[in-house]
Design brief:
Blueprint lengths: L1 H16 L9 E5 L12 H18 L15 E7 L2 E4 L4 H4 L8 E8 L4 E2 L7 E2 L4 E2 L11 E2 H7 L10 H16 L11 E4 L2 E5 L10 H10 L5 H6 L35 H13 L3 E5 L6 H19 L6 E5 L2 H12 L20 E3 L7 H4 L12 H5 L2 H19 L6 H40 L20 H23 L2 H8 L3 H15 L14 H31 L10 H14 L6 H7 L1 H24 L9 H11 L5 E5 L3 H4 L1 E8 L5 E7 L6 E4 L7 H4 L9 E5 L12 H10 L9 H8 L9 H8 L12 E2 L2 E2 L4 H11 L5 E2 L13 E5 L5 E3 L2 E3 L1 H22 L3 H4 E4 L3 H13 L8 E3 L9 E7 L19 H8 L1 E9 L11 H6 L3 E2 L1
Parallel strand pairs: 7-8, 11-18, 11-19, 12-14, 12-17, 13-14, 17-18, 20-21, 22-28, 22-29, 25-26, 25-27, 27-28
Antiparallel strand pairs: 1-10, 2-4, 2-10, 3-9, 4-5, 4-6, 15-16, 23-24
Helix pairs in contact: 1-6, 4-5, 8-9, 9-21, 13-21, 14-18, 14-21, 15-18, 16-17, 20-21, 28-32, 29-31
Amino acid sequence: MDKKWLSYWKKSLSDSLKGEIEVSKSIYFEIENFDISNSSLFDLKKINNIINAEEDRINKKKSVSDKNSKNWVVIEAANVLISPMKLAPISEHQVYLGGKKAIFPFWYRATLNRQGELSIPEDVFPVFQRKLLEPLIDEKTEFVFASVEDVDNAACIGKESYQDYSEYINYVRKIFQTVGRQPLEEYTYSGYKTVYNGIILLPDEEINAAINIIPLYEKILKEKELPALLKHFITLNHTSEKSPFDVSEFIELNDLHVGQMGDTFPISISQRKSLYTFLESKSKIFAVNGPPGTGKTTLLQSVVANKMVENAIRGGSAPVILACSTNNQAVTNIIESFSKSNTQEGVLKGRWLPEIDGYATYLPSESKDDVALKGINYKKPSGDGLFKRVENKDYLEDAKKEFLQKSAGYFHMQYINIEEVVHKLRNEIINIQSALKDASCKWKNYLDAEKTFTTVYLKENNDGVKNYYSEDDILYELPFDDDISDFTKLEGRIIDYFKNESFFRRLFCTLNLKSAIESRAIEIRIILRDTLICITPDFTFKKNSILELINHKITIAKSIKQSINAWKSWKKQYNIKGNPPKTEKQYWDFEYLKRLHKIISNCFYDELDVTVRHKAFQLALHYWEGRWLLKLEEDLQSQFDKKDIETTKNRWQRQAMVTPCFVSTFYMAPKFFSAFRFLAKGENGKKIYDEIPLYNFIDLLIVDEAGQVSPEVGTATFALAKQAIVVGDVKQIEPVWNILENVDIGNLKQEKLIRDYNDPVYKKMFEKGFLASSGNIMKMAQNASDFKEPGLNGKGITLVEHRRCYDEIISYCNDLAYNGQLKPLRGKAKNDVLFPPMYCIHVEGSSMPINGSRSNPTEAKAIVDWICTNKIKIEAKYGKKVEDSVGIITPFVGQKNILRDGLKHAGFDVSKIKLGTVHALQGGERPIILFSMVYGKGDTGTMFFDRDNKPNMLNVAVSRAQDNFIVFANTNILDKTAKTPSGVLANHLVYQ
């Protein structure tokens, strides 16, 4: 079953490649005045060139290069793609449209033989380039042919088989007209000229970055046993549902959290719950649900820093950590966060190596240009980048001098060798871990003492309990000093009492005479009155018994005092003011006090994060720098640039000492984490190498924005890692699915994963995110997670503290998507806010179709006018250009283009304004977000942002706004009674 899944995802990925066609990089020929009805082509030379190219490709994969070889495979036909037309930009529109390249929005398949005859292909549904369909993958795309929904609807047309080629072509025409809303032979698009030239093209998998993933699937499928992490991840049925650790258990796990990257902010309560559960559980797959503004990046920084310090303590290899996502924005966010993390001032600040900054290295494609890579660490497949610059003898000598110079400044003494510095740095880190363990031990001893105090020491005398507690809600020593003094005096009184008791009283008590015993009891009760000695029904009024009781109280008091002093002494030694919260409520009380008093930390765990744990990270950073210098010197003596498995692994582990985290898209990761192995000599005498994936090599795979990663793109990379932490939100932007539902079902049936659409397994696959047409990596990780929070539907641990938006703004997202789980911590809008936080401006206007999209010129003009009117006060409020303070979101590219033109005409720098669909601001924020709804009176059907009643689009749009979310809409489209995303929004808006 496991391999069926992998085969299915590989097939899905292959199918998705066919929807992204780059003509200039393919083998093709062009036919002028192409007639789609013709079933024959006549240029046999060009036809045979294409079929020969396919024949060569087939044999190349078999490592056969000699056409005279008995192993050479001969083919008589090839599957081709045909574009019956192209759209050429009209010259005056070239600047607007971004260049001179023609667009090929529509392709259909055919089988072409060497005689030029075209026949019906196996797969008859045409190919629509996904990048030209709304919702758009790339915000820079200006041409929109149709929507994904239009294509999905068209997929239901027609039958699965055709009698002849002309019947098939009629079906192709019908599909085009259904999706493009115009007949093929009459198609027009503003700004373009329709040219009816045919392109006959040989599909080439290598036109898409996903070509790196497909060979990885092929390699995995040949393995006898699947890598452990991958196997766990793709198991459909997981029953484990353990609860995460509670605040009261944090102290038990305190010494597991040994490193913190930044010193500006401690991690939040739910971040700590996530981190501590992750560290203790050692789960293969750990899922974290990260709603907007809840600090996913800070959590990931903490995970990386902790791993780095852990491995320094062990003294083994540096951890190889890979942070992955599917889109460049998420990757950019990770790189920026690891480059700009604050560190404590002092000698430990920054790096002890020259010309190196940041803690992450980006792994881009070879073609990534220098402008995009400026100012960041990177490593290309060829090796160009940071490590090519620093891993050489010249740099090594300079780096050793600087490292020793800076280490001498820290230790206040000169060291003659790097080994000694590394040793001392590691010892300091180990001492910090010991201090954390010691803190846990001393606090637990204190808690035990506190329990003894309430259950044994005070027992029934609880009236004065508050007198024993200080302002920070822990016991303090002075009352116990007083108690010990009082008990000592009480001992003397009891001794004196029995010493002075009459002979006859003692005699009669010895003989158990009732009156004598009662008289003694009355007198002793008076002595013990208002003391902590409780007279119980079985109390024995004898000297030794009473003295033993008093001595027991003194012993307990001294023990409690010792525990208090030991705890306070530890805190004083490490300059810690607060105490560990005992309950979640108490922790939240601390959190709200922090917000009220505007302070960074006010409890034990927070203070440790920004002090000793941060110092441990700084020490570990320099420890690994020293280890790298030693390792580099050793490795430069060997075959440094070999690409065999052992050398490649050694290289990654060495380079991980410089930057603890590598960052990549899922498309590039397989290419980087592989090695070469010699197989044999080919028939032409050339050496043949096999590319070997580095299975189970990456110590930790981090997946960010996992809700945007489709299964077929992300799954294979799990084979390369030992453990994964997957962070995302299924309530924000979804993946761009390149597989239609009907194609998906066909692939599932082909791999025998389901019998038909009604197979009950299909529903389970859908719910758990396994489907290429509707799934995502986040859902799969939730399924594979061992943890589930009580009262929540999905598995995984949820981050809940929201700090980005004013409470009035995030309350909409809370109501819409999170069932009130989020804890708003920024507070309500201040009096100086320029506009109501949730604001609606009515615009009397309607939408209209435009070039396959939709627009509302009246609404666009209203937005431009509003920005012009409010420009001065917005710039005065935020102290920067209005372009840097305002973001504009709209569901449609057509509206984006009109807005962009209007803003440009009004004199604004549109290159600086965040303007586009929600993808333009995913992971970003602005003080003011304007939302153009576009729809107006007379529009029918479900509005784009209400489709399937999913909260995703409006949830992302609203949560980008820090201070103001302003809707421009014809208010007739907003129905406060509807339970749709826009209906919920209507109830949160203040209307103009």
